Amino acid sequence: MLAPGLRDLQAKPAFPASICFQRNSYLREQYSSKGVRVLVSRRHYNLPPLTTLSAFEAAARHLSFKNAAQELSVTPGAVSHQIKALEGDLGAALFQRRHRGVDLTEDGRVLFDALSSSFVRISKVLETIRDRSSSASVTVGSTTAVAALWLSPIIIDFWREMPDVSVSQLSQDRPFRDRPDIDFFIRYGRDRDASLNHTPLYRDHLIPVASPEMAQKLVGKSLEGLAQQRLIHLESDDRTWTTWPDWFHQLGYRGAIPAESRVDSYSVALQMARRGAGLALGWARLIRPMLESGKLVPVGPYQISAPNQFYLVGRPDDELSSSALALKEWILHEVRGSSV
Known about the structure:
Elements: H1 7-11, H2 17-20, E1 27-31, E2 37-41, H3 50-62, H4 65-72, H5 76-90, E3 95-98, E4 101-104, H6 106-134, E5 137-142, H7 144-161, E6 166-171, E7 184-188, E8 197-202, E9 205-210, H8 212-217, H9 223-227, E10 232-234, H10 244-250, E11 261-263, H11 266-274, E12 280-283, H12 288-293, E13 297-298, E14 304-305, E15 310-314, H13 322-337
Parallel strand pairs: 5-6, 5-7, 10-11
Antiparallel strand pairs: 1-2, 3-4, 7-15, 8-15, 9-12, 9-13, 9-14
């Protein structure tokens, strides 16, 4: 007779009767220890449950149920149960139980050799997939201005040379905090997180810049005269950025400095200066493309060396993927190859 839960399956089989009880079909007939006929689902490859194979492989490798249990984080009883289930499914003994351990039977050795070599191949394939998905991608962060004016052209050149590497850029005008998804980011000044690796890039120079028309009108202006112009102030949560008051103070000017225009994005400050809305504090190397194109023009001979350097900040090199290290070296090469 059929087990109670399978009477409906006998009355209305899910598959044609001609294949229900054929060997290697989706359903096969099996009798329980009490002689009850049941229908057991058969997998595509006609394999027993993978948990039984995993338990057997570990036990056969260690020749110990106890050590296999420790590896699999289960009890020795659980390992023994899985192996008995596997032996029951195969109808063959896989181990010879001895007083001080176990040995493999001939069937057990054949099965272990097949499983061991198969698991090694699977492991190598999985490792390749993991490496391909992780090491072939890099995530780098920066401010929007750094991305647009300096970093993006470098990454484009890198892509052309290494098209198989996927580079993601994250641009934001606020400090990068608690972002484990970022391999490294460009930062002016040192980050407060001392555990991060800081690789110096360059030290920039700060100059006042304006539209060509405004710059022409301000030729010959003194520091005091410049201080009276409309200055575009950048407000940031990151206090390491040099401000207009810092700039004038380093040049020895101690007078009043109006703050009529305030923005929270350096890109916006540069656009306002381009359109004649005031003076922006220009980072000479960073905005070099705009200076070379004539969209912005230095105002006067005044400049200072930036108090802080730009850094590549991120995880230590031994924690970076090969692709991340390749991009990092590319950026450093670009820095060394161009003059300040």
